[in-house]
């Protein structure tokens, strides 16, 4: 008998299991190892801002904010467990404009961010400011000299999703958790979870967290309907060996690519957004799109060495909000998915929320807007 079984070992499931363990409960994590785990392909920008746009709901803001700021807590705990190789660093983000229209967008963004912001957001972002084109070029050696303007968000961090997942799994094992390979299927009796079956073996439990990302949609057809869709992202990794390159700010363009740098010399740029189901392929068109948009903003990367192209399936919800909460009508089941393009920012916080719900603790947030049955068909 295990207190809690977590199905899915992406960022959400691993963070959930880690919190379950920290709260003093036994936990088993099961992962099917499907190709296209989003956590491995995620670029890694930890930025709540695109979630707190002018049209955003208050809930969206709160979850986004807790997602970015929760990292401090999580990384401190992982350090206590001896896990520090996660690729998280505060490198800042440089948003660049390539023409006057885009520069107008930067100006509007600066005005918004200079206005009254929630204290935790202002603290996370740091002092946002305009840079001259020369200053921007001094920070990013591969940047186009044709850019029109740049805005620096100095507090933005980036993380290596794949490395963070390794850290979390390793910390879980050190704490005595069972992290295993296999396809998990819920076993229910009379409206209650009683076990998870993993490739024929039964793990008895009264509590399950389903964190199976884009694959969750197929397991909950009535609950989720067409509310969660896999959106394929192809993302290119390059080698660009230069002194100190890993601390280069994230570069993003209003209408185009983002470019991140990691130790020791890895550049990551993307990505495509394609609704093609679970079609795990690198396509000629996808590769061409990513490289063409990247080189428009960062022509200095033209001579970088191609390392790999990763493919991941973002679990995108219909209203672009996460899905987290108890499954109505099935005692003991908690669902946590739908983090879309923001799961590396929000995943640790959403996982921790799911963990607290699973063990009967106060999740610490009003989750009404995120409830799992909001896409359910009426009959
Ligand atoms: C190209 C790309 C770029 C991105 N960039 C960013 C970014 O810069 N910033 C950001 O915040 N987010 C980003 N994201 C989004 C982020 O990566 C995802 O939202 C996040 O990783 C989703 O995590 P997850 O744990 O829900 O799902 P996943 O990481 O997909 O994990 C789900 C796991 O469940 C397992 N599973 C499924 N079914 C079962 C089953 N029956 N039994 C056992 N296991 C099962 C799968 O094998 C998989 O390992 C990006 C995503 C992509 C693809």
TrEMBL record:
EC number(s) stated in the UniProt entry for this protein: 1.4.99.-
- One Pfam family name is DAO
Q: Which SUPFAM superfamilies match?
A: FAD-linked reductases, C-terminal domain, FAD/NAD(P)-binding domain
**Domain FAD dependent oxidoreductase: residue ranges:** 3-356
| Cellular component GO terms, alphabetical | cytoplasm
Q: Which cofactor does it need?
A: FAD
Question: What Gene Ontology molecular function terms does this protein carry?
Answer: oxidoreductase activity
Q: Which keywords belong to this entry?
A: Flavoprotein, Oxidoreductase
Identify its protein family.
Belongs to the DadA oxidoreductase family.
Q: What is this protein called?
A: D-amino-acid dehydrogenase
